[in-house]
User: Fold this.
Amino acid sequence: MRAILAFLIALPLLAQEPAALLEAKLMERLRQIDQRFPGVMGVAVIDLSTGKTLTLNGDLVTAQASLIKVPVLAAAFQKIEAGALALDQKVELTEKDKAGGSGTLDARLGPQPLTVTVEELLTLMIRDSDNTATNRIIALVGMDSVNQLMAQLGLRATRLRRVMMDSAAAKRNEENTSTPLEMARLFEFIYRERLISRNASRRMVEMLKLVRADFRAALPRGVESASKPGSVPGVRTEAGIVYLEGRPYVLSVMCSLIEGNANPIRDVVEAVHSYFTRISQSNRYGHRVSEPIY
Assistant:
């Protein structure tokens, strides 16, 4: 009789709610994507409504490609807030500034100097992933300033070690690095308007919303995102905020040692978004309250 009573008392402790089981299915689906993918993959997800974090290889330290431009953007706004730099400040560029690779600025540079503003450079760096604009911003801000800011935020693996398109430095392992979890935290700071200042965070979001990459392609029409991708041979990354109504979240995906041109990022986005969509539409017991009862 005592054994039966003890069993009955323990029953509530064994109960599981639907959301916990759905979360377990999400993690299993991410593991399956990782297993099929010819490379290594790390994922970090932050539920911005609850603060809960989910990770798969979240501490994977890997090259960032153009995703490192977000820490550069943050450091630039830190200088702007301090009065050491201004959005309307004029910057002169010449052919010697050409970095190559992604972007449109190189095509505009000729024998005559080209004058642009800091704001134009930042927008080109984020929206078009322009490497020439990025390198000029790094020169204005200083590499040490980027790394000091990341250290202050507790993002110890997030480091800027070279300018864009410096293959020699990359071969020496002087690589721009971060982890899925650290980059997710950086975007959470931006979302909560705690990165530099409320105004700076909002301006950064405005620029990041201009990006069109794997996040935007995989999300349903009408769901807004503010993200930044990156890609170099062997590496694909993207991190950002997804503004799902009623359940916004941060997602960070990093892929390394890739075979060929494989890219699992859209599969990850679809899996994570499916999970959050169902959670956002249902009560704690799985009733989809977004739809009327007939």
Notes: The first strand starts at residue 40 and ends at 47. The chain has a mean pLDDT of 94. The first helix runs from residue 2 to 14.
